[in-house]
Amino acid sequence: MPKEARPLGQDRPLAKSNFPGVTHHNQFPKADLSVGLDHLLSGMDEEESPSSVAPAVVVSKALPEEPLIPEEGFAELPVSLIDAAPWQPRIYFSQDALDRLVASIRSANQVNRPLLVRRKDDGRFELIGGERRWRAVQILGWESLHCRIVSASDLEARLLALSDNEGQEGLTDYERGRAFKELLADGTAESERKLAVKVGVGHMIVNRCLALTKLPEACLELLEKDPTLLGNTVAPEFYKLSQTYPELAYQALLKIDQEGMKQDHALKWFKDEASKLAGVSPKKRTVPERSFSFGKGLAGSMVVTKKSIKLSVPDGVDISDLESHLLSLLQIAE
Description:
The chain has helices at residues 37-47, 95-108, 131-140, 154-167, 173-185, 192-199, 203-212, 217-225, 235-242, 246-259, 263-277, 319-330; strands at 73-78, 82-83, 115-119, 125-129, 144-149, 290-295, 298-304, 309-312. A hairpin with a 5-residue loop joins β3 and β4 (125-129). Among the domains are: 70-171, Conserved hypothetical protein from pyrococcus furiosus pfu- 392566-001, ParB domain; 198-306, no CATH class. The protein has 12 helices and 8 strands. α5 (173-185) crosses α7 and α9 packs across α10 (246-259). 19% of the residues are buried.
């Protein structure tokens, strides 16, 4: 049967296919080119209005809760939440000592002793003991530090601070004296002896450290800048002389500070200068003579100092023979 001829450019009609859910291309709606862009945009606004758009489903991810900080006990605290105490007894921080501490903590990668802190009303923490360690970890850039939280009043915190420094990072004697003076003034202890028991040091230590706080004002100004200048061993005599000769006390401290003179040498200079002003010659130390026997009832004497030996020989003793024996004893060749 011959094929049916069809006009050029016209597709052969296709058999209609019926598939569920599929629209045949001959049934697609024809484009309405008379519709403008403004009309389309206004239609989109109506369709996407809040009343017609389905609400988005928000999936929330539960964040882990921060660990609770106990009222008392041990905890890891952010370094940024710890404040220095306004009554910190230490006023002098040696940079060399702090550098050594930083190097030690960096090497061990830990602080062996927790800081001692107490809570503040604003939710932060106040440092009681361990300011050098606290400063060291800030230099290292650590974010947290192991601490021991305690409940303590102001007076109790001061006592704890002194005890912590006594056992770990020794305060200078002048710093201790300042703290002892404040605690006595606050009524924490009725006497120096009772304060010594509370702090855990000897009574004489308390007494000598307090003597440093009684020096003339000019001396105290130097000690405030560098409390290492004078220690408790020379404090009682220094204080006693300073009551009569305050200017000499200041000059003696300057010799320690500027000339590097040792404390005991500065005290000797102080005594000598005070004696001159008082019109009294400095007492010279007398060395006692020692008696000995040469035999046959002959007695002599000897005076020994750090650098010499002086012999007094009685009549009847052969000096040449004695010299020979001494040279032989000392193994000195003629």
